[in-house]
Amino acid sequence: MVAQITNYGAKLVALWTADRQGHFEDIVLGFEHIHQYLNAEEVYFGAIVGRYANRIAEGQFLLGTQQQQLSRNNGTNHLHGGYKGFSAVVWNVKQSTENCLVLQYFSPHLAEGYQGNLTVEVCYILTNDNALNIDYKAISDKDTIVNLTHHSFFNLKGAGVCNILNHQLQVNATTYTPVNADLIPTGQLNSVNNTPFDFRQFKAIGQAIDSTHPQIKLGKGYDHNFVLTASKLAHEPRCAAIVKEPVFGRTMEVWTTQPGMQLYTANFKKTLIGKYNRTYVNRAAFCLETQHFPDSPNHAHFPSAILPAMQQYHETCSYHFS
């Protein structure tokens, strides 16, 4: 495997993996030049997203007894850290070796409205068993909220080769969080049983992607958080999902310590020209973003995303390839 990463947004810009014939292909969407990333920030190709990945309703929540107001960069809501989240800043390179890259960023108090001076560190490691491990750490001098995720757009046939509708997906989740018209969770935890969200057994991503199910219509495909089956040991990584591409034979497993995972099927409104002059069309990729649930600070029964002052945030995500 080969991973290529830029310290602009800590973005994974290319990931080369072998198919069953040993042929290597770049399987993540992205661009060849920095100005293209600057002009298409809203798609978050390959980025580390924070301080808070996904949406927060009205950008508002209570932290203790204090009302917090974040920037509103997604209509009236807050999305992926705001106008200048972690995906749109230059990270410092703390360590770089053949198979390990450690990036660090300092987010000052009240950046995008977030409380606390936060230092965040992301470690990318390529392992000998063909995995890309992502290790997140953060610490703040004040109580704050933190929810970091990795936002690569995967296509196991190759970036920009075709759509991902025939990819076979299995997700270890029995419930998901339904959303309203703004894609904000309603607070319910709905069963996947007899719905397009039932991926407990392998099925094609495209099998029910144009379903008349109200949640599919709201997301224009999949753009939903799955409640992952808990690990037997507290905060132990477990397999969240497996994706198989039947033509070229690549398989990807997703392992994480996080409680949720967002499935997004690249429901693009417009086409983009990406690497190798390939066109990225609607549903050209899928994202499996391991994270805390969207809008968690406004739902007391969701796993808490509060990071108390001077305590360490530590989560992991690993993408295994075969």
Describe the protein.
This protein has 322 residues and is mainly beta. The protein has a domain at 2-164 and 260-321: Distorted Sandwich (Beta-galactosidase, Chain A, domain 5), CATH 2.70.98. Helix content is 4%, strand content 39%. It has a nine-stranded antiparallel β-sheet with strand order 9-10-11-12-27-21-20-15-18, with no helix packed on it. 44% of the residues are buried. The model has no long low-confidence stretch (mean pLDDT 97).
Structural key phrases:
single chain, about 5% helix, mainly beta, Beta-galactosidase, Chain A, domain 5, about 40% strand, five-stranded antiparallel beta sheet
Brief characterization of the structure:
With 322 residues, the chain is mainly beta.
SSE arrangement:
Elements (H helix, E strand, L loop, with lengths): L1 E5 L4 E8 L5 E3 L7 H6 L7 E3 L5 E2 L3 E4 L2 E4 L8 E2 L12 E5 L3 E8 L10 E9 L4 E10 L3 E2 L3 E3 L16 E4 L1 E5 L12 E2 L11 E2 L9 H6 L3 E6 L9 E7 L6 E6 L3 E5 L7 E2 L5 E2 L6 E5 L14 E2 L5 E9 L1
Antiparallel strand pairs: 1-2, 2-3, 4-14, 5-8, 6-7, 9-10, 10-11, 11-12, 12-27, 13-26, 15-18, 15-20, 16-17, 16-19, 19-22, 20-21, 21-27, 22-25, 23-24
As for the CATH topology of the domain at 2-164 and 260-321, it is: Beta-galactosidase, Chain A, domain 5
What is the gyration radius calculated from CA atoms? 18 Å
What is the number of helical segments per DSSP (H or I, 4+ residues)? 2
Please tell me the CATH architecture of the domain at 2-164 and 260-321 by its name.
Distorted Sandwich
Q: What form results from the Cα inertia axes?
A: globular
